Amino acid sequence: MISKRIPNIIILLLLALSFSCSKTEENVPLTTPTAQITVDKLVRKSSLRNQEIPFKIINESGVDVTDLATFYVDGNPIDGSVFTSPTVGEFEVYGVYMDEGVEITTNTETFSVIIPKRKVVVEDYTGTWCGFCPRVAGAITDLHEVTDDITVVAIHETAISFPDPMHFDQIQLLKDAFGVQGFPAARINRSTDWPTPHTLDMVTSMAGQDTNMSIAINSELTDNDLLVQINVVYEEGSVQGDKLVVYLVENGIIYGQVNYYDQDSTSPFYQMGDPISNFEHNEVLRESLSSVLGDVIPSTEALTEYITSFNISLPSEYVVDNLDIIAMVVDSNNTAKNSQHAHVNEDKSYE
Fold this sequence. Notes:
The longest helix is centred in the middle third of the chain and has 13 residues. The chain is built from three helices and 25 strands.
């Protein structure tokens, strides 16, 4: 018997998909839901405990040979082509099958079983005309230095006598929903005030904690057409009233910022000018792909994915390399329960 190892055959971890189209509540979204993104590598790099992980082998000719294969996880054969684990950890899988008398061994792929971690949503209501607003941006910079388990959105509003080119058209709806009156205003998980002096432990005390729901993001850009797919999975099934919010944000926008801290020696913005001519604005909310307050998540069984997708034609002024997708699941009171973020063209799995 001839044995052969072919390194370029890919094991696909395919999901039992639950397709859906988004429906709006409070307003009409800017995008139209579309089909699922097709991938030719590991579909799911990580899974939750006890979640089914089906394996699939496509040979070099594009033929599905899953039924012909024996799969090995960490060197041990499994029955069939589906694996689950009640414990967390990293695993390796490969498959072996016969092809015209030749034993084929696929390449080895690594995947993880995880407990989801919470990413805290931090929102900054701001404007280039707002002289006190840099203090929130500074606090967010400090947050980024101590934790990766945050998702940040900066929501800009223009002023009558001082236009802000990053103005978000639906900001009034958000201000009404979350009681925002004066600027700057910072919110944690959408509904909790983050008051001055914006102490980091209000956020870090929650960031990275174990939770029971996770979000994955995948996106593809073709010319200026962006397709975004969001996957949500619950350990114990979806909760009635939960909604999915999906935003597009842009980083690295250089634009002047009024700065009332120019003469404050205790501020990181001391003697940086008023206005600061080269201020870098990050995580700027550009578009709401879902309804701005979220699309209802339909009833979903435990460990079964809810999958939805959106597409949008990107304006030419957006810098593609600086664009991120933000996704958050919020409850019926619009409080964020978990979130995820990813660069455009990035496949970000559950974490």
